[in-house]
Amino acid sequence: MWPAPDTLPRSTLCFAELLGGLFLANVDAAQRLQFLMCRLSVGTTESCLRTHILQGDDVVYAADRAELEHHVHLLTEAGAEGCVTIVRHYIEEVTAAHIRCLQAVFETGTPGAPQPKLALPSATPPDIQASRREKISAGE
What does DSSP assign to residue 60? Predict the structure, then answer.
């Protein structure tokens, strides 16, 4: 009754999957970065408000101000580490999408093979990073 539609070439389907993977990786990275920036802005705003509220005795004020500045520095370091992690994950997703596309187009490799991850050295030891995360989570 109806003529059968022409089949799409393999490369067309692979490139459509590539574009979908790139779009999802982009949306994921944008959403994560936006959430991170919102959290950081709330934390720094809270520290600024506390600085203005706690203006009383000079000795108490100096100690509180030093503590709040330390808190802002911790937030800044955590934000930088979060940005690096998000961008690293984005690069891995984009690379994996390109590899899957090329493997499908040229029919090489196995479709379920694990993709290599980026192995970048960390600037600080893991135990220090864990203690920073704990301090930030505790609200210190």
Answer: H
- Find out whether 83 and 29 touch, Cβ atoms under 8 Å: no
For residue 136, CA distances in Å to 69, 73, 86, 111, 120 come to 13, 11, 18, 41, 24
Reduce the DSSP state of residue 117 to 3 states and report it.
Answer: coil
| pTM attached to this predicted model | 0.66
Identify which of 65-74, 111-120, 122-131 has the greatest average pLDDT: 65-74
Q: How many CB atoms lie within 10 A of CB 136?
A: 17
Longest dimension (CA), the chain: 90
User: Rounded distance, CA 94 to CA 89, Å?
Assistant: 9
Please give the Cα distance from 60 to 57 (Å, whole number). 5
